[in-house]
Amino acid sequence: MRVGIVVTERCQASSLHTTIDLIIAANYAFQSYFSSSTPLFQYEVIGLKTSTKAYSGSVVCGITPITKYKRPEIVILPGAFESILTADQAKSQLSKLAPLIKILQKWHSEGTVIASICTGNFIIASSSIANGRPLTCHWISEKAAALLYPEEQFVSDKLIIDHGDIVSAGGAMATAQLVLYLVSRFHSRELALATGKLMLVELNFDSQSRFAIFRPNHKHGDALVLKLQKHIEKAYSEGLDLTDFAVTNLIGGRQLSRRFKKATGETPLSYLQLYRVEQVKIGLETTNNPVNTLIWGVGYEDPTSFRRLFKRLTGLTMKEYRNRFSSFTSRRYAKFNAQ
What is the tally of structural domains in the chain? Predict the structure, then answer.
């Protein structure tokens, strides 16, 4: 997967280098732990100039001209300038990036996912690809963002906001979380956890972001299917009475199942199973609760049956999964990888 990391004049060097370091770590974990012969990400530093200077004074060299770079699957925009700049100062910096913004607009329209960090979110706002959808930012930049982009929504209390085609993260120190989130989104949460352990970075996704790893399709346009999805996600521990739901909504059970499968790619039952397994995986990763307690908590009365389902879907027993991915373990990655 090709990733272009955009460097701008007066960029945040810490944001840039953290992005690169986490991608290198993800590639190492992918090849070492997942036995791949090739890296997951093929990254390149791109920009308008072949070298530039960060606001810290450090020089960034070896930049590939963006005009000569083939459209990547993912673009990452590290902090473009200091978050403490006034609106006028930020506007002056952004005015130099018009050619870059034009290219990003084109790439976005062709399917590139654009992820931004801190003041990199100002570039997204300048490109008008957010279209009023919320973007996050450093709290100290919120005032300048509101002055520059009165028609856009900037919020500073969210670490990461994912709209599918654009992903935004807060301050420069959210960089590691953004990269780990992209690793989990484009590969697996297991690889994100392995990468985080390798770099001693604890994942800090909220529960909704965690469930995004399952990535159910909510944008299919079928209101009734969406209603059933939300019902399953809210009441997953109570089981699913599909007949009752169908009768209540004046539709046949088979017709409902066909519509659900067409919209989501899963049957209602398999959707429920995937959701339950995802919740148990989170419990194994983040708590020391007994395995059976986690199983009963998602509505399974037969632990043996659930263990078979878990092994079938993950390839690991629940004990193996906890040993490898629990955030409570303090082993070094080398020992973790040697299991």
Answer: 2
The strand pair at 42-47 and 160-162 is best described as: unpaired
Q: What is the predicted pLDDT for the residue at 214?
A: 60
Beta strands 166-169 and 160-162: pairing type? antiparallel
- CB under 8 A, 24+ apart: contacts of 281-290: 281/189, 281/314, 281/321, 281/325, 282/207, 282/210, 284/318, 284/321, 284/322, 284/325, 284/326, 285/189, 285/193, 285/322, 285/325, 285/326, 285/327, 286/326, 286/327, 287/328, 288/328
User: In angstroms, rounded to a whole number, what is the distance separating the alpha carbons of residues 280 and 132?
Assistant: 35
* Phi, psi for residue 189 in degrees, rounded to 5: -65, -30
Q: Which amino acid is at 228?
A: L
Q: Which residues pair with 169 in a beta bridge?
A: 117, 160
The residue range of the domain holding 34 is 2-202
In a domain, 339, yes or no: no
Cα 214 to chain centroid distance, Å, stands at 11
Cα–Cα distance between 159 and 168 in angstroms, integer?
A: 8
Task: Answer whether residue 207 is part of any domain.
Answer: no
Burial bucket for residue 293 (CB in 10 Å: 0-12, 13-18, 19+) = exposed
User: pLDDT tens across 44-70, in order?
Assistant: 999 999 999 999 999 999 999 999 999
